[in-house]
Amino acid sequence: MARDTKERILGAALEMFSQRGYDGTNIRELTASLGLGKSSMYRHFKSKEEIWNALLDEMIAYYAARFGLSERLPPVPDSLEGLVGMTMRMVDITIHDARIVMTRKLLTIEQFRDGRARDLATKHFLTGLKEMFTPVFAGMMDRGLIRRDDPAMLAFAYTAPISALIHLCDREPEKTGEAMTQVEAFSRHFIRVYGTSRMCE
C-alpha cells in the first residue's frame, strides 16, 4: 500500500513538473490532487527536492529498461530497410509513451535550473542517441550495408534531425503524423546517400 501511494505521488509529480516546472509545482496542490494530506506526503518524501530526485531516479530506470541497458541497445539491422523499421519503432515509442513524453518535457523545462536535469537532457537528447547508434552503423559497415565512414559522426548526423522532430511533436502534438512521415522520409534519404545496395522499394 505504501509503495502504491509512493508511486501515485511520483506519477502526479511527473505530470505537474512536466507542465509547470519545479518552481511552479506546489506541494499542497500535488497532495490535494491525490486526495492526500501533507502529513501523508511527508511520510514518503521529506521535501519537494526529495520527490524531484526520486522522480529523476525513476525516469533513468524507466528509460534504461527500454533503451539504455546494453541488452536493450538496438540490434544491428540485417538490411537497409531494417534500419528504417527499427527507427520508426523507436520513434513511435518515444513519441507515444506518455511517461517518456512527460519526462522529456520536464527535462526541457528544468535543464537550465538543475544540473542533474541538464546532464540527463544532454544524454537523452544528444550524446546518448549518438552512443546508441554508433555501434549500429559500425555493424552495418561490417555487413557491407553502408559505406565506410566515421560511425560516430554518422550516428550524430542520423539522430540529430530525428531528435528535432521528436521535440516538434512535444511542442505541437497536432503535427505528430507529419513528423513521423518526415522521420521515415529522412531515414530513407539517409540510406540512399550512405547505403551500398538498393533498398527494397
Describe, in plain words, how this protein is organized in 3D.
- This protein is mostly helical and 201 residues long.
- The chain has two domains: 57 residues, Arc Repressor Mutant, subunit A, CATH 1.10.10.60; 129 residues, Tetracycline Repressor, domain 2 (Orthogonal Bundle).
- The chain contains nine helices and no strands.
- Helix 1 crosses helix 2 and helix 1 crosses helix 4.
- The termini are far apart.
- The relative contact order is 0.11.
Keywords, separated by commas or semicolons:
Arc Repressor Mutant, subunit A, mainly alpha, 201 residues, 2 domains, elongated, Tetracycline Repressor, domain 2, single chain
Topology overview:
Elements: H1 2-20, H2 27-34, H3 38-44, H4 48-68, H5 80-96, H6 98-110, H7 115-142, H8 151-171, H9 176-194
Helix pairs in contact: 1-2, 1-4, 1-6, 5-9, 6-7, 7-8, 8-9
Please trace the helix and strand order, writing H or E for each element. Answer: HHHHHHHHH
Number of helices: 9
> How many distinct beta strands?
0
Tell me the span between the first and last alpha carbons. Answer: 54 Å
Main pleated sheet: none
Task: Name the helicity range.
Answer: over 70%
CATH class of the largest domain: Mainly Alpha
> What is the CATH T-level topology of the largest domain?
Tetracycline Repressor, domain 2
Low-confidence stretches: none
CATH architecture of the largest domain: Orthogonal Bundle
Radius of gyration: 20 Å
Structural class determined from secondary elements:
mainly alpha
Give the domain tally: 2
